[in-house]
Amino acid sequence: MEPEIGEALGASYRFVDRIGSGAAGEVWRVRDVRDESMRAAKVLRREHAQDAELVERFIRERTVLTRLRHPHVVAVRDLVVEGERLAIVMDLVEGGSLRDALDERGTLPPAEAVALTAAVLDALAAAHAVGTVHRDIKPDNVLLARDEEAGAQDPGAAVRVVDFGIARVLDERRRSTTAIIGTPEYMSPELVTLGEAGPASDVYATGILLYELLSGRTPFAGPGTDFTVAYRHVSAEAPRLDVPDDVWRVLHRLLGKAPTERPSAAEAAESLRRLTASVATLPALAPVAAPEGFAEAERPATVLRGVAPSAPEPVDLPADEPAPDLGAAGQATVLRPMPRREAPAPVAEEPAEKTSPWTRMPRGRALWIAGAAVVAVAAVGAFLVLRPSAGEATPATAGPVVTASQQDRALPTGLSVSRSVSYDPEKKLATVTIEYGAQNAPLTGPFLEVLPGAATSDACPAVTWSDATVTRNQASVTGISVNCGWSVEGVTVPTQDAVTVTAQVSLALDGQEAVDAWLKTAAAATTEAVSDAEVSGASYPVQRLRDIQVTTPARTVGGTALPVTLLPVWPSGPDPVNPLYTSPSVGAPSAMLDAIAGGTAGVRFSDGCAGALTVSSDGLVVTALSVAPDCTVRARVGNFTDLVSSPFGITTR
After folding, report:
1. Environment class of 552 (CB within 10 Å of its CB; exposed 0-12, middle 13-18, buried 19+)
2. Angstrom distance (rounded) from CA 200 to CA 188
3. In the chain, fewer beta carbons within 10 Å around the N or the C end?
4. Per-residue confidence at 376, pLDDT binned at 50, 70, 90?
């Protein structure tokens, strides 16, 4: 169902008007009813919202999307999942996009193009530093704040990069469907050939963006399908632009065919800023026409020095297997399947006359094998000379550091937990980094973490913690009996932010699979412990709270304060004995309420009775006004944003 003006989006937003559309969905201006501010909401297309796995990935990715804060990044404020509707709520940027600027002006002066591109690279550098890759950089995804929002004369100050994380989640979908995501005119060579996109791919796409800002066209645009355009990134050289040599050198490096040839985003931004003085007075180029043809790029092959390479044998593709047709070329983001090429079945050889294998082999191949044999003999000789003599110990070489990562599903309280481990096999030491993220309310520990031994039968390992106050979990106090459990205290996670703690664990693990398995076991043991339905009590509330019940008397009298109680629902069920909060309140908030909502600041009641109730200015006291047979109270408690009480009646005295 398409949104309508005035319709609610979740509990906090109302649709105002549609302001754009893209490959992933429509963009709407929405009003935040909490403070009347305007935001932008990207409402993803229905096929995305109906994909349960993709929705789950977005929810898991929420902390990554909301924690990225940079002056040149459009901040993600919220994620709304409601029925068949999935929306990402972001800051509203009113100045249009770089695509709009190009449509209006054709090309930009080099000084402006360089400043804008450097700002985009600054945003990418910040994202890459926290492990996020954009994957779809293009003028459409670079917004420009209005002058008063930019607050500076520097053109780059207006840059706001949008859609971080959307391509990332859709790309995970690609991995399970053997498809390719991206905009053909901006795809890096490694994305086209391998389907892989990393930080270097973002740098490459930014180089394409700079090329387009300078010339009015992307370097490989031209006739043909999306596949034709995309493959030119691999096979062709970008046509030279009429810009100073120092500008072209930087641009050419951004467009390196191999990821290792390109600078990092931070290095590229610095290189562009060094050009500021030399391009300050240069006029904009006239829009550049498409070339008649493209120069073939050099693609070096592996060679064996001293052996003349033979011409490659021609390969005939089957007539019924055309190149994959991805449709007409364009600048829209695509997510389309890439057909797999099956290996041809071996052809049975005809019986041949017994001859020397050297006479049956092509001359070039024989020379290659002969050269390889010479190298092999030389290697064996070197080994015999350099190997240790009998009785001499061979020095042991420690294996490389092994890394692994894992992320839990977001909990109802808004807590997300991601864990990464870096294992040093020489020291037999695992450095575990645990990141706690919060959504709509601040969250406070203690948090339970289980760090087991390398094997089920092993004793609990020695652990050294930093960045928090950590003690052993005591089952007699918490009610949770789990081996190798730790209580992480003294940690407060701000709203829409994340904090990390670190643990160094002494372990003996053997290789990548063992490290992956250990981290998975630690996460699973923690989840199982906090989800145990046999455990009662209020320990580790941020991890264990599943829901909140809003309770009231079945009847109340008009003109009086309505007693409202918030009951925690644990895995074992509701707990009427230890409420989170009672209104009107007496005394200090409970420790549980402090942990999950930052105290009473995270509690707000509202009228669910069409004007029969009134709520105090602080949102904490509900008073019955007029007679009504069927009323409800709505509540927001921390991340629980749409709570409703059971119906009750209001009577006269």
Report:
1. buried
2. 8
3. C
4. very low
* Long-range residue pairs from 482-485, CB within 8 A, at least 24 positions apart, any chain: 482/448, 482/450, 482/525, 482/528, 482/529, 483/450, 483/452, 483/525, 484/450, 484/451, 484/452, 484/453, 484/460, 484/525, 485/448, 485/449, 485/450, 485/529
Q: Within this chain, do residues 513 and 412 fall inside the same structural domain, yes or no? A: yes
In a domain, 559, yes or no: yes
Which ranges constitute the DSSP H helices of 552-609?
Answer: 591-597
Residues 131 and 266 in one domain: yes
3-state secondary structure at position 463: strand
- Encoding tokens for residue 326? 């991805």
The three-state secondary structure class of 351 is coil
Same domain, yes or no: 85 and 120: no
Higher local confidence (pLDDT), 309 or 640: 640
Same domain, 111 and 229: yes
Distance CA 428, CA 509 (A): 7
- Mean pLDDT along residues 195-216: 92
Domain count, the chain: 4
Residue 651 CB neighbours (<10 A): 12
Distance, CA of 100 to CA of 91 (rounded, Å) = 19
Q: 58 or 312: whose pLDDT is higher?
A: 58
Q: Where in the sequence is the domain holding 2, given as residue range(s)?
A: 1-92
Catalytic residue positions?
A: 136
151 and 181, same domain (yes or no): yes
Domain of residue 589, CATH code? 2.60.40
Identify the weakest region by mean pLDDT among 109-123, 196-210, 219-233, 246-260. Answer: 219-233
Q: State the DSSP string of 22-46.
A: -SSEEEEEEEETTT--EEEEEEE-H
Nearest to 152 by CA among 219, 79, 72: 72
For residue 382, the model assigns a pLDDT of 42
Q: What is the per-residue pLDDT for 63? A: 61
